[in-house]
Specification:
Helix 5 runs antiparallel to helix 6, helix 6 runs antiparallel to helix 7 and helix 8 packs antiparallel against helix 9. The chain is built from twelve helices and no strands. Helix content is about 55%, strand content about 0%. The protein has about 250 residues and is mainly alpha-helical.
Length: about 250
């Protein structure tokens, strides 16, 4: 009975101790710093370029002012690799590279320029063409994703644009490896597969943060990345939904 009394007294005492408050949650970014960032990657995105100008670092403003609108004003539907070798194309490519090294908002601006290059130039190989023009589009997207894919998984400004970039990368590289009249371009196929599997963790024991985001938002595209066949088909299907008129052959 004495033990029972002690236990009862202990229980009453414990109930009398005020509970410890849980630590206050740490505030994190909830809203994107650029409103509706995906709009910048869709048709009409040039109307919002000025929204990004305020985020461009001072050392990049001269290049931004000189070249940011060049892809949006491009006419004639030139071949991608050929145009990127021209003086305006080189200036835009250098601007993209510089913006890519900056803030998330500058990275969004770089991606908007890359998507517009894909929209305004021709990278569809046709019946007898090769993969080089589609590979140039894929290369620009691959360089961007190497830097920003993983950070974007936790960044509200870049989250959706980065996923869209992966889909467009898949579409461009699928066009490239399927451009061979018979069979596939093996080197292009293996390059794209190695890159996306590393970026997402598809086919591995553990997904990356970016892979988790892609699997959540575009499950079929993610699942096909680990297949042994036409592994970019899911990415192309989703890219066609986002950009139904972006076919690599200009409007």
């Amino acid at each position: 009975m004495g033990v029972a009394v002690l236990l009862l007294a202990g229980a009453v005492g414990v109930r009398g101790i005020p509970p410890t408050r849980p630590p206050a949650p740490v505030d994190g970014p909830v809203d994107p710093s650029v409103a509706e960032p995906m709009q910048l990657l869709l048709r009409g995105g040039e109307r919002r370029l000025e929204d990004l100008a305020g985020f461009v670092a001072p050392e990049r403003l001269v290049a931004w002012s000189a070249s940011a609108r060049v892809p949006f004003e491009l006419t004639g539907c030139p071949r991608t690799a050929d145009w990127l070798q021209t003086e305006p194309g080189q200036r835009v490519e250098r601007l993209v590279e510089s913006l890519r090294r900056g803030s998330p908002e500058e990275a969004l601006a770089a991606l908007a320029l890359v998507v517009q290059i894909a929209r305004s130039t021709s990278w569809d190989p046709g019946f007898f063409g090769g993969p080089e023009h589609a590979e140039r589009v894929g290369g620009l997207l691959e360089e961007w994703l190497r830097v920003w894919a993983q950070p974007a998984a936790a960044d509200p400004t870049l989250y959706e644009p980065a996923l869209a970039a992966a889909l467009l990368y898949g579409r461009a590289m699928r066009v490239a490896y399927e451009s061979k009249t018979v069979g596939r371009h093996a080197a292009t196929y293996e390059r794209a597969k190695a890159f996306l599997q590393t970026a997402t963790g598809a086919g591995a024991s553990r997904r990356t943060a970016f892979g988790e985001a892609l699997a959540t938002r575009y499950p079929r595209a993610f699942e096909l990345l680990s297949s042994n066949g036409d592994f970019l088909l899911g990415c192309e299907e989703e890219a066609r939904v986002l950009w139904p008129r972006l076919r690599g052959s200009c409007p």
